[in-house]
Write a structure and sequence with these properties.
homodimer; six-stranded antiparallel β-sheet; three-stranded antiparallel β-sheet; 8 helices; DNA-binding
Chain lengths: ~240, ~240
DNA sequence: CGACTGATTGATTTCATTCAAATATAGTGG
DNA sequence: CCACTATATTTGAATGAAATCAATCAGTCG
């Protein structure tokens, strides 16, 4: 093991990134001041997860927290017979692994290649102890996640297929970096199966519903993974349960 | 207005309660040590909410946090046309009002008379600043709520009516003070409409499903608000998606 | 005791699912 | 580059679980 000295260490390139991380402004990491970035970088282990691979397993010991810096992941839970509920899709800035339990309560897989920073529990604990604002930020994050999940319950419990699909598109459009205006041209990296499992529907119903919205002129489907919102306000109205 | 003196104030009876509060061990208040209870009691305003009354309104400015000390409340969200999704039922020890937003994201009404302590935002902020363990406890609470809501998404998105009703009963049985073993005799203070709106079903389906579970011998219904779990393990299996 | 609200039961309908097939897209090796 | 295979998506027809419509039954409270 090397001595305690650090400034300009051999792995400085790997410790540098926090300062230039594009996801930082949108993530919990923004709670750490520029001057303290070294501590953050020292705890973060960058990692790439290839498309389709899982990196968090429901029921397994929760050894790490994850902060997404790129790509898209699906969060989901499985029933014993294989039925799947996708809880959401995570993009850059999303913090994963929050759970007071010592096992993960959800699973996560990369939809498209994911870049993330891994924090071991002990190191995360040390960070939180050293930077109390970080804990406040985590609480804020957890509260937002909670509100999102509760919105998900409304969608799954009380919305029609049409409203669910519209809600998904509107939320996805708004879900980019929070400073940008909602996009009207969307790229959907996930499959119809992912969408169906998120909306509590079947792939056939998702497909039919998209076709219907297209025929009604609310959107266009240049390819199966591209959506052009032609009447965003109308889609938002449908999503809200008014259309 | 009285002077700043406080110890043994005229309202000492109202400032005493934290020490003898039955809900404290199960609530976020357990983060505050006995020695500091005065600070807690100074911030808490006890309140009684009569059955049927609301005390938190989605969309209204989030001026307070609430800590339930008795009774049962329903948390819910409404769609513009009146469709309702009940997000959960809160009992003693439940902390309400968590939201990074400055407006409430959910509404709350008393199902049966509710006792709670109200904390204004500024006072809560002061408490959290003074007792960092409290913030940790809040994060823990929020994480648990998140896990519960995600479980709710699985229920609403992928479970059958039968599985939903069984899940509700099993969760309600387990939802008492966390130290007690799950009860097999349940009292349900909420109406079938509340249950239906929680499970994403209609009252007719809830009623029919309960009748079916009764005919199958999994439970008995001495009155419409009393449930006797005759085969708790079988019910748990149904709830988990195995029955 | 009637009027009211909430719960149960029955008959019918409907929205989404399931089953089935066709079409489009992506990937691979010749 | 293209044929060929595998996978994903779309579309169609039939089925089904829960919703809706409708009526009865059971408690509660002036």
């Amino acid at each position: 093991m090397p001595a305690l000295s650090v400034p300009a260490s051999p792995v400085s390139a790997a410790h540098e990134p926090c300062a230039s991380c594009g996801a930082r402004p949108y993530s919990v990491c923004s709670a750490i001041a520029d001057a303290d970035l070294a501590a953050l970088a020292g705890a973060a282990v960058p990692q790439v997860v290839p498309a389709g691979a899982g990196f968090m397993d429901e029921g397994e010991p929760a050894t790490h927290f994850f902060n997404m810096t790129g790509g898209t992941a699906r969060l989901f839970k499985l029933l014993p017979d294989g039925r799947r509920q996708v809880l959401g899709f995570a993009r850059a800035g999303h913090f994963l692994g929050l759970a007071s339990a010592d096992s993960y309560t959800v699973s996560a897989e990369a939809v498209e290649p994911v870049r993330l920073c891994r924090f071991s529990r002990p190191r995360m604990r040390a960070l939180v102890d050293g930077f109390p604002q970080l804990e406040r930020r985590l609480l804020e994050t957890a509260s937002n996640e909670l509100a999102t999940a509760q919105e998900g319950m409304v969608l799954l419990g009380r919305k029609t297929a049409r409203e669910r699909v519209a809600s998904f598109l509107v939320a996805w459009a708004a879900g980019g970096p929070s400073c940008l205006p909602p996009a009207t041209r969307l790229h959907l990296p996930m499959t119809r199966t992912d969408i169906a499992d998120y909306l509590g529907l079947t792939i056939e119903t998702v497909s039919r519903t998209l076709t219907r919205l297209r025929k009604e002129g609310l959107l266009a489907l240049p390819t199966s993974s591209e959506v052009l919102m032609l009447r965003p306000a109308a889609l938002a109205a449908v999503a809200a349960g008014e259309g």
